[in-house]
Design brief:
The complex is a heterodimer of chains A (about 260) and B (about 400).
Chain A (H helix, E strand, L loop, with lengths): L6 E12 L2 E12 L3 E5 L6 H8 L7 E6 L2 E2 L5 H6 L2 E3 L12 H8 L8 H6 L2 H21 L14 H13 L5 E5 L7 H18 L2 E5 L3 H7 L2 E6 L2 E6 L1 H5 L2 H17 L1
Parallel strand pairs in A: 3-8, 3-9, 6-7, 7-8
Antiparallel strand pairs in A: 1-2, 1-4, 4-5, 9-10
Helix pairs in contact in A: 3-5, 3-6, 5-6
Chain B lengths: L1 H40 L7 H10 L2 H23 L8 H14 L8 E4 L9 E4 L1 H23 L4 H20 L16 E2 L4 E2 L4 E2 L4 H23 L2 H11 L1 H6 L4 H27 L1 E2 L6 H14 L4 H30 L9 H15 L8 H7 L17
Parallel strand pairs in B: 1-2
Antiparallel strand pairs in B: 3-6, 4-5
Helix pairs in contact in B: 1-7, 3-7, 3-10, 3-11, 3-12, 4-5, 4-6, 4-10, 5-10, 7-10, 8-10, 11-12, 11-13
Classes of the chains: A alpha/beta (about 260), B mainly alpha (about 400).
């Protein structure tokens, strides 16, 4: 077990109740600094619910989430985002009618300081701040490889480039943790394998820890240093890809579901 | 192919500020022409009588000034509706508050008090007399304050509910003024009688009374220009981007660190300031404040101006406000007079105002949803039909 000082995020004993449904039951989960960890599980396992607790969209009925030394359980989503927890969306949610670089500038909102008056007057400080933000946005776009589309509207980008732009937008928040919600959804195997390299490159160059929610097992197995498996709201296993691959409960959870689906058809 | 498209887009992006400059120059040019015509040509003896009559019938100076007041307010509403995408059906509240600021601080109404703030009115006059330019600031500030007070509980609601609650506030505030003749013995608004005879506008050269249309025209043109300037500057800054992001996808915006409440409140407050300035301007234009003028139809009227002109595009909004205001104040009555004298009929044309506006709105929604001078971004969505599947707010939950 890693020392707590090395953890960038530590969620302990999280439970989420929706009416009579216990969507997440007493799950503890942490993210070590600069690691790549994954959260997997069959459909309905509570992955996204848990994810939404981390980003502040849901408040857990029990448990608490620590970000470094700071408790973030009750912080609103925009606060959590601005102190360093950035996410992407399973079904891309870019600001389609804004250019790629504007998308990034929106994410920098909380780091910029200009108020109404200084924006109207275009004070030297405001202009300097805007220029620096724009430079930084272009740098991030170049980093993820879509620099040439900087002034293209987000909705005009290809699917793969939109995925990249989502990551770029999250990076613009200067996060310590990057949460990727099914980032390879809709990608073909080649694109997925390029993505695995991309994740490691992001982690190394940007000093972030990465949490993936992912369905594609080949991606999960090749990208993660640690995998946590949820089933019906409970944590049933946690360990290295090798450990998870041979874990009996994990196999049951997945094969059981596959078998019942087979009968259904 | 993508490359050429991107190149074209990039060119367009660099051209955008220049096009605003062109529009601004056009605006000032038109304003100058109007000013010269009305200030010098109209009073000129040599002007052929038919031209004089034509202008007086179809474009009297009062109608231009009234239109400008609508322009100022519509520009404010545009910040709320066009930029931040919040449907506000109670904007008339700010117009009323601004109007009463002028009524309170620029007349003999509060006889019990006597205060003169840089006013050109004789100091023997009772009541609060504050310089028009200061009252503009006060009206804007008071409205910004009320914008925040009204907005704080209201803006937590989404779309339809927000519209309903703003509609409620748009009714409540004018009603307070309407019935404010005797609040525990205190006369707040003089009720239905309203507050009349406002102080003239001091300009340093001469004091402008209610009939100085030409000079007030200049003042209103400059106030509208100020609102355009503020809108464009904000739009291209940190706050404007956040507004656009909220308009597109609230959840994604909050997940990217944009505080929803504060950002929406900022748009509401900026819009309210314009409403306040417009209210003060309107009060000086009609030389008084009358509670029954601040009714719900004004809110709808302003919204129609923004939609007709092109939500989010200041130049479109100016055009929309001018057209609708002109139809309302001059176009229809003048058409009615001409028609009735021509054919000996007795049709009450102005009573068809709202029929006509309804028709205009329906036609706009059917054929030109993005407005007369559309914002480039909106035009893109509205003309692509169903190619924007992925733009719809998607369902977040696992099934």
């Amino acid at each position: 077990m890693a020392l707590s000082s090395e953890l960038v995020l530590d969620a302990s004993n999280i439970s989420v109740q929706f009416g009579g449904l216990l969507a997440v039951n007493d799950v503890s989960f942490n993210i070590p600094k600069k690691s790549v960890v994954s959260l997997i599980g069959p459909n309905g396992a509570g992955k996204t619910t848990f994810f939404n607790v981390l980003t502040g969209l849901y408040k857990p009925s029990e448990g608490k989430v620590m970000f470094g030394d700071r408790e973030i359980t009750d912080l609103p989503p925009h606060k959590i985002a601005s102190i360093g927890l950035a996410r992407t969306f399973q079904n891309i949610r870019l600001f389609g009618l804004m250019t790629a670089e504007e998308n990034l500038l929106v994410a920098m909102h909380s780091h910029l300081k200009s108020g109404i008056t200084s924006t109207i007057l275009r004070t030297p400080r405001q202009r300097k701040e805007e220029k620096e933000a724009l430079d930084s946005a272009r740098e991030i776009l170049d980093f993820v490889g879509i620099g040439k589309w900087a002034s293209e509207y987000a909705r005009n980008l290809s699917y793969g480039d939109q995925r990249r732009l989502e990551v770029a937008r999250a990076l613009a928040l200067k996060p310590e943790i990057l949460l990727l919600d099914e980032p390879t959804a809709g990608m073909n195997p080649q694109e997925s394998s390029v993505f695995v390299d991309f994740v490691h490159r992001v982690r190394d160059a940007r000093d972030v820890a990465i949490l993936l929610i992912e369905h594609d097992m080949s991606v999960v197995m090749s990208v993660s240093e640690r995998i946590t498996v949820l089933d019906r709201g409970e944590k049933i296993a946690e360990g290295s890809p090798e450990e998870i691959r041979s874990n009996q409960r994990v196999i049951e959870a997945y094969l059981g579901k596959a078998a019942s689906e087979g009968r259904g058809k | 192919m993508m490359a050429t498209r991107a190149a074209r887009k990039a060119k367009k992006a660099t051209r955008r500020p220049a096009s605003h400059r062109t529009w601004a120059l056009g605006y000032l040019a038109v304003a100058t022409v109007i000013f010269v015509v009305y200030q010098y040509a109209l009073p000129w003896e040599g002007l052929p009588l038919p031209i004089y009559d034509f202008l007086q019938l179809w474009l009297p100076p009062t109608s231009i000034n009234e239109a400008l007041v609508y322009v100022i307010c519509a520009l404010g509403l545009n910040v709320v509706v066009g930029y931040a995408g919040l449907l506000d059906l109670g904007y008339v509240a700010f117009w009323a508050i601004g109007g009463y600021c002028a009524g309170w601080f620029m007349s003999n109404f509060f006889e019990q008090w006597n205060f003169h703030g840089l006013s050109s009115v004789a100091s023997t006059e009772p009541g609060l007399h504050i310089n028009f330019w200061l009252v503009l600031v006060i009206g804007g500030a008071v409205c910004a304050f009320f914008g925040v007070v009204i907005g704080a509980p209201t803006l937590r609601l989404k779309s339809d509910y927000l519209a309903l609650v703003t509609l409620g506030f748009g009714e409540i505030i004018p009603q307070i003024f309407f019935n404010g003749e005797d609040i525990n013995g205190f006369n707040l608004s003089n009720g239905t009688k309203g507050i009349t005879r406002l102080d003239p506008i001091p300009t340093g050269v001469k004091d402008l009374g209610p009939f100085d249309f030409g000079s007030k025209f200049v003042i209103f043109v400059l106030l509208a220009a100020l609102m355009v300037f503020i809108s464009l500057q904000l739009r291209r800054g940190r706050l404007g981007r956040a507004w656009l992001a909220i308009r597109e996808d609230e959840l994604a915006a909050s997940m990217m660190g944009v505080p929803l409440m504060r950002t929406k409140l900022a748009s509401y407050a900026v819009g309210a300031v314009a409403g306040g300035i417009g209210g003060v301007a309107f009060a000086t234009h009609v030389d008084g404040v009358y509670a029954e003028r601040f009714n719900f139809s004004i809110s709808i009227f302003l919204l129609a101006m923004v939609v007709l002109g092109g939500m989010g595009n200041v130049w479109g909004v100016i055009l929309g406000a001018f057209i609708l205001s002109w139809i309302n104040s001059t176009g229809l009555p003048a058409l009615g007079d001409t028609f009735n004298t021509q054919f000996g009929t007795d049709i009450d044309f102005p009573s068809f105002t709202f029929l006509l506006f309804g028709l205009v709105l329906i036609l706009m929604i059917l054929f030109k949803r993005e407005g007369l001078i559309p914002e480039s971004r909106l035009r893109m969505v509205l003309h692509e039909g169903d190619a924007d599947e992925e733009m719809k707010p998607a369902h977040e939950e696992e099934k």
